């Protein structure tokens, strides 16, 4: 009796271990909905740090991730972003090290997939990233339509961001141009004031020397006018 119970327990445990990580569609009582989830948001990654997110996905799904670096802050000068996606078991599914990119792969197991954004290229400045990711499952036309609409919105948003960034860069260039001219004019005025100061100082010193020399000469002339021989007293 004890041996039969032990054998039944072993068989049931083996059945549990061999079970798929995701129940089939007929198992409605499992509480799992075979749909697609998508997210669109922006996040800031500090200097020399990493931000990670976990996204739940079922088996046999198409995982997608689109990202774009919008701008950099601080002393950052590199817009490249190191993006990795790992499976629930920790396996690397996709990676990219660019300022803009798209990652796609098929989900093989059910679980939480980890998305990590690494700002390792900038040690003294953060970056702002726009993310759009989700999972598409086969036979879900509505999800595919939503994803296509989301991609269109994302593309239009990215286009608007690029145009705004281009306009901002042009305005910054013009501001920097005027600022450089203002600095040059300020430097010119500074050196002109120094030159005038030196001119006034030298001219004042020269005039003072001329005045002293002319007074000394006048004194000599006056002494010559009243000069007599030694037999007569001087006035």
From TrEMBL:
Keywords: Endoplasmic reticulum, Membrane, Signal, Transmembrane, Transmembrane helix. It comes from the Eukaryota. It is found in: Endoplasmic reticulum membrane; Membrane. Coiled coil: none annotated. It is a single-pass type I membrane protein. Residues 1-18 form the signal peptide. The keyword Transmembrane helix applies. Residues 13-135 form the GOLD domain. One of its GO terms (cellular component) is endoplasmic reticulum membrane. SMART domains: EMP24_GP25L. PANTHER family: TRANSMEMBRANE EMP24 DOMAIN-CONTAINING PROTEIN. Belongs to the EMP24/GP25L family. This is Transmembrane emp24 domain-containing protein 6.
């Amino acid at each position: 009796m004890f041996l039969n119970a032990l054998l039944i327990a072993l068989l049931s445990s083996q059945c549990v271990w061999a079970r798929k990580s995701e129940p089939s569609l007929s198992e409605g009582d499992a509480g799992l909905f075979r749909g697609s989830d998508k997210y669109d948001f922006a996040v800031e990654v500090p200097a020399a740090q990493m931000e990670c997110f976990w996204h739940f996905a079922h088996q046999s799904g198409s995982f997608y991730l689109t990202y774009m670096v919008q701008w950099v802050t601080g002393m950052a000068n590199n817009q490249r972003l190191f993006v990795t996606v790992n499976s629930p078991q920790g396996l690397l599914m996709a990676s990219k090290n660019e300022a803009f990119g798209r990652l796609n792969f098929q989900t093989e197991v059910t679980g939480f997939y980890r998305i990590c954004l690494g700002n390792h290229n900038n040690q003294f400045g953060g970056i702002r990233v726009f993310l759009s990711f989700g999972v598409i499952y086969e036979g879900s036309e509505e999800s595919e339509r939503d994803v296509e609409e989301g991609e269109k919105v994302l593309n239009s948003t990215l286009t608007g961001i690029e145009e705004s960034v281009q306009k901002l860069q042009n305005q910054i260039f013009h501001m920097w141009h005027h600022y450089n001219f203002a600095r040059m004019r300020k430097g010119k005025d500074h050196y002109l004031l120094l030159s005038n100061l030196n001119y006034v100082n030298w001219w004042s010193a020269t005039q003072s020397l001329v005045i002293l020399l002319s007074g000394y000469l006048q004194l000599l002339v006056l002494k010559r006018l009243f000069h007599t021989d030694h037999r007569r007293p001087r006035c």
